Amino acid sequence: METLQNLVMGMGLAITPTNLLFAFIGSLLGTLIGVLPGIGPLATISMLLSLTVALDPVTSLIMLSAIFYGAQYGGSTTAILCNLPGEATSVITAVDGHQMALKGRAGAALATAALSSLIAGCIATALIALLAPPLARFALNFNAPEIFALMSLGLLACVIFSPGSFLKALAMALLGVLLGLVGSDVETGAQRMTLGLAELSDGLSVVSLAIGLFGLNEIISNLSRPDGRQVATQSLNRLWLSRKDFGAMLPAALRGTALGSILGVLPGGGMTLSTFASYMLERRIAKDPGEFGQGAIQGVAGPEAANNAAAQTSFIPLLTLGIPASPIMALLLGAMIIQGIQPGADVMIKRPDLFWGLIASMWVGNAMLVIINLPMIGMWVRLLRVPYDILFPAIVIFCCIGSYSIGASALDLVIMAAFTGVGTFALAVGYPLVPLLLGFVLGPLAEENLRRAMSLANGDVAVFIERPVSAAIIAVMVLLMLSFVIPMLRRARSANSEA
Amino acid sequence: MKNSATRRSFLRWSMAGAAALSAGSLRAQSNFPNKPINVILGFAPGGAIDAQMRMVAPAMSAFLGQPIVIDNKPGAGGNLATELVAKAAPDGYTVLFSGSSAMTVNPATYPAIRYDPLKDFTHIGSLTNTDLMIAINADVPAKTVREFVELTHKDPTRYKYGDAGAGGSPHVLLELFKQKSGAKIQGVHYRGSGPMLPDLLANQIQISCDVPATFRSHIESGKLRGLMMVSNERNPLFPSVPTAAEAGIPDMALPGFFGFHGPRGIPAEVVEKLRAAISKAQTDAAIAEKLTGLGLALSVESQQSFVARIEKNLRLFQAVARDANIRIE
């Protein structure tokens, strides 16, 4: 009852003309920067921080938050149209989303992404309103051993479920882990594999890596095809989803929402992990797993929903405990501090207007995002008709601007170019790229938390099975490995007995 | 190798000095500032350094009559930004706003650092003082430093300290605390206070050192307990937390500061103008209230006392880093 009263109060704040206006500005800006590769919410929010000092605290947080979750909507657009993921979280959307676009279903793919995001955003916001404190307590009990176990599970599942050769996927995942370890070692501060370059002390930029591996690589493979890019343009006019599409999309989006909501509360790589987890789940339970990678609508709906749900629930540790679970949340925490608000365990009590106003504005913002995004689908799809000779140089320029803008470092462009080469070579010899990216994102988290868990437990490995949550995750890993190895052994045995 | 490096840095700052004395810059300084001033920060937005700079920038800019451009250049524990400013033109248009660690701690813990805190800079002035605080999880059955130390002696492998990064001020201060108090604690390092705090709240680590703002709401809600200030003055926000001397470790009063530094050789008039802008921001009641709300104290001191403090703290941290063998390479 009290929650309801609070929500009514928050909604009253969220729909004042000023707050509506700034939620709209934030959503629009978020969509735009999401569409542009590289220029992400992190850079945009940092640039706008100074301007928000003049605004009311609630208004400024409403706008900055809208930029963040708005960017998650926009991020899928270039992933689907150009196979160009601007962030690690939209890499998996590109896999089936771009295939749908190539088959003339770009409109359906974009609509799926927008609707899944809306569903996820609304449900996850309701979760924050109803369950923020218990979810935050759950996240607090998720410490180094649990994070290590979860990241390892993610890596294992990615390798096992990767289509094609197991060994090739494993090799690429390990290469990704290795690349992820570039930078400062957290326990000693030692510089690892930085070639003496101070710019590498914080690691390789994930954006440069993703743009090179997927986006620029796609351009090279399009240009190297003698008949040019193949896009089915005949049925582009059909923008909306059929009843059958809708039936496939909705359950996948709901499952993605559930996965994303839980993983988003956890510290670290929750958002990226949730998109991959959702994709693997959808492929596992699909009636026809062969469709995945060829333009399965569930492969867009699930990860997009997971991504947006995670973006929404990642606010929980910040709003209930003052703990930023990601660099973006650290920025929003900074925005609160600049306004003279002391973030912490008591924000909900001391500033209920801020907490409930922000939550209510998330529904408003999500609704606005769909209103902004759906009419734009037609425009985006027409973009595919632009001759490729004009389109691709523009994409390359945007990629360079985006990659450079993150750290204002020319080295990031070199890294982007290098990974374009890596991607082209890997595809030519038939090695999958997705495990490399997941290894890059999850590997360093697994390593850091493994060592932290060991330090905290004085080197006693038993800590991973003594703690219930970590033991449960490890049990799942063992089952997963058995389910993979046993059929292989059986096949080997039957092959032997036949011989 | 070493020789040529020192010669290069000598050349760099003597050339910088010569440039400052040239007629051109003498003419330029009389109407300083006549273009926007770049303030370089060694950390991304979201932390105490960025927040403070954005709080004071409007007032400083109004006083100077020129925009202040805040330029976040994170990397290598803030060292990238500090190096950048050391090499900039000494005209007052490029200054660094940083925590004391850039001048007093990092040069002690990073042997390969490429700047000399005493030779490469004009130390303009401090904005605030920050007394770091040592806090423990409230489930640890100790109310005082002495009780905590006794506890660690009963179970010497049980208690862990956490800090916001290997080689930073809290890390060195916790090692100093270990030396001075005799506590048996082992260190675990994090990438910032953000990831460290959940482990302290969950009692994965038992003791930590950071700016009081990190602990404030959790001390008020009873999840954490303030053990001592790393200072000889109590903090008005935490009147019951004892000073270092009261807690029985008198030589641990090391107030950190946040201040402005430029490359060596900024003309005195320009320095005075910048100091006046800092002082203008400090006397703005609304800004002062926001800064003290972060648990910071306004710092009013002469340039000489600022430089002397940097030199004194640098020597001390160098000694601790040597004794505790803290080397970030």
Largest beta-sheet details of chain A: 2 strands, antiparallel
Order of helices and strands of chain B: HHEHEHEHHEEHEHEHEHEEHHEH
CATH architecture of the largest domain in chain B: 3-Layer(aba) Sandwich
Gyration radius over CA of chain B:
20 Å
CATH superfamily placement of the largest domain in chain B: Bordetella uptake gene, domain 1
User: What is the CATH domain class of the largest domain in chain B?
Assistant: Alpha Beta
How many whole angstroms does the radius of gyration of chain A measure?
22 Å
Annotated CATH topology of the largest domain in chain B: D-Maltodextrin-Binding Protein, domain 2
How are the SSEs ordered, and which strands pair?
The complex is a heterodimer of chains A (499) and B (329).
Chain A: H1 2-14, H2 17-35, H3 41-52, H4 57-82, H5 91-102, H6 106-140, H7 144-161, H8 166-180, E1 183-184, E2 191-192, H9 206-224, H10 243-265, H11 270-285, H12 298-313, H13 315-321, H14 327-338, H15 347-350, H16 352-383, H17 388-407, H18 410-428, H19 434-456, H20 463-466, H21 468-498
Antiparallel strand pairs in A: 1-2
Helix pairs in contact in A: 1-16, 2-4, 2-16, 3-4, 3-14, 4-5, 4-6, 4-12, 4-14, 4-16, 5-6, 5-12, 6-10, 6-12, 6-13, 6-16, 7-8, 7-11, 7-19, 7-21, 8-19, 9-17, 9-18, 10-11, 10-12, 11-12, 17-18
Chain B: H1 2-21, H2 23-30, E1 37-41, H3 48-64, E2 68-72, H4 79-86, E3 94-99, H5 101-104, H6 106-109, E4 121-130, E5 133-137, H7 145-154, E6 160-163, H8 169-181, E7 186-189, H9 193-201, E8 207-210, H10 212-220, E9 224-229, E10 256-263, H11 268-282, H12 285-293, E11 297-298, H13 303-324
Parallel strand pairs in B: 1-2, 1-3, 6-7, 6-8
Antiparallel strand pairs in B: 3-10, 4-10, 4-11, 5-8, 5-9
Provide a concise account of the structure shown.
The complex is a heterodimer of chains A (499) and B (329). With 499 residues, chain A is mostly helical.
If you had to describe this structure to a student in words, what would you say it looks like?
The complex is a heterodimer of chains A (499) and B (329). By secondary structure, chain A is mostly helical. Chain A has one domain (2-466). Helix content of chain A is 75%, strand content 1%. Chain A has helices at residues 2-14, 17-35, 41-52, 57-82, 91-102, 106-140, 144-161, 166-180, 206-224, 243-265, 270-285, 298-313, 315-321, 327-338, 347-350, 352-383, 388-407, 410-428, 434-456, 463-466, 468-498, and strands at 183-184, 191-192. A two-stranded antiparallel ribbon of chain A has the order 1-2. In chain A, helix 3 packs parallel to helix 14, helix 4 (57-82) packs antiparallel against helix 14 and helix 6 runs parallel beside helix 10 (243-265). The longest helix of chain A has 35 residues, at 106-140. Chain A is globular. The termini of chain A are far apart. With 329 residues, chain B is α/β, with parallel strands linked by helices. Chain B has 2 domains: 2-130 and 255-324, D-Maltodextrin-Binding Protein, domain 2 (3-Layer(aba) Sandwich); 133-252, Periplasmic binding protein-like II (D-Maltodextrin-Binding Protein, domain 2, 3-Layer(aba) Sandwich). Chain B has 13 helices and 11 strands. Chain B has helices spanning 2-21, 23-30, 48-64, 79-86, 101-104, 106-109, 145-154, 169-181, 193-201, 212-220, 268-282, 285-293, 303-324; strands at residues 37-41, 68-72, 94-99, 121-130, 133-137, 160-163, 186-189, 207-210, 224-229, 256-263, 297-298. Chain B has a 6-stranded mixed sheet, sandwiched between helices. Chain B has a 5-stranded mixed sheet with strand order 7-6-8-5-9, sandwiched between helices. In chain B, strand 1 (37-41), helix 3 (48-64) and strand 2 form a beta-alpha-beta unit. In chain B, helix 3 packs across helix 11 and helix 8 packs across helix 13. Chain B is globular, with a radius of gyration of 20 Å. The chains are: A mainly alpha (499), B alpha/beta (329). Chains A and B meet through helix 3, helix 14 and helix 19 of A and helix 3, helix 4, strand 7, helix 9 and helix 10 of B.
